[in-house]
Amino acid sequence: MTVIKQQDLIDSVADALQFISYYHPLDFIQAVHAAYEKEESKAAKDAMAQILINSRMCAEGHRPICQDTGIVTVFIRIGMDVQWDAELSVEAMINEGVRKAYNHPDNKLRASILADPAGTRKNTGDNTPAVIHMEVVEGDSVDVQVAAKGGGSEAKSKFVMLNPSDDIVEWVVKTVPSMGAGWCPPGMLGIGIGGTAEKAMVLAKESLMESIDMQALKARGAKNKVEELRLEIFDRVNELGIGAQGLGGLTTVLDVKIKDYPTHAANKPVAMIPNCAATRHAHFVLNGAGPALQTPPSLDDWPKITWDAGPSARRVDLDTVTAEEIKQWQPGETLLLSGKMLTGRDAAHKRIKDILDKGESLPDGVDFTNRFIYYVGPVDPVREEVVGPAGPTTATRMDKFTSMMLEKTGLIGMVGKAERGPIAIEAIKKNQAVYLMAVGGAAYLVSKAITQSRVVAFEDLGMEAIHEFEVKDMPVTVAVDSTGNSVHQTGPQQWQKIILEKKTA
Questions:
Q1: How many CA atoms lie within 13 A of 411 on its CB side?
Q2: pTM over 0.90, yes/no
Q3: Would 497 be classed as within a structural domain?
Q4: Total domains, the chain
């Protein structure tokens, strides 16, 4: 009989969550670097360079890879011969570990979890509770897999109940383009097949805990139907030309993971969940010998990548930029932003709408006239930081507010992650505004361009409050120009054609 102490589980969960907040799995770094080396699209290569540089910076500085430090997911298998020396339940011990990790004074992580999701949506303040999948199995140890899953990639999860005769590959190839780039490719696709609807979703999530081994699989060849599916889906999805950050390129997915389970004869449930460029997961086993702490990797394992915007980058003064000036910016052009801009996400936009609908004035300090808004919810700063990691959030969530913001507040530009939808693009075109894209998964790198930060409104919203940032040479790409041209439409189209030509040559 193995005795597991309460504090050992708490400390092991806390250590794992801190560890994965700033260390990418090495297999992921190696896969991104390999994709970077072979990439032919300049835009996609630049995006991957920023992801790799950000990863090394986070490993060195022990700060979050992404400002979205995720919702904690835990798979725990408890041996039947385990005895607990604990006053708390297993669920409570795990949540205490989450609480300890997210409030660590040297690396405070962003609290993103909201209670009463259909009502008040009030932040719990410590990122609890975790989503916990618990099993009792044979043995005398406790096996734990911990992940921190970003909301942008989780939002792109898909499920379908196919007919038994339907083709899984065709459904995946049809569905991936509909996910846009808000899941921050290149990443992994986790696919669950079989069981029931809820079982398929859990299988898909659990598959993302596995290491990247696609190149080894390609080298040795498939040994069963699941491996055949992995290889086919991997090739077919990359042939779509979506590329890093959806800008068009050779690599959209680094690996495809599949778990299956027996299912009803009338059903073929299929779930698909992507993992983003902030892939974060860890594994540990408790055997009664104390806490299981993670082993730091060597920084020598990170590639030494350098990146700069290049001599052609356009420098923009946000304090003097005009509506006429932005009409000259070209789709795909790199800009370096300097000056002041306001921030705002979903909750802030909703509150702005409510204020304007009542005919009231916006709070002091919230003047969007001829200004830009950055869609971001930053991590709290520690030590000498001006702000914590502050990468962009998925811009499409603000699409329904875009027309209002452009027509009623004087806003002329937006900065966010991934593509804009048709409603937002039409509003941008109508108002001759512009949308700029920052790289998702490079939050710590982006934060280094922020020289000052202060909350100017809605402080009660926590990380969703409106801040005013002052930035210096913040790199962005013109994603939608003032005429409505979108690089997230033209880039993948171009690279899908190039890839097809290569394949048939």
A1: 26
A2: yes
A3: no
A4: 2
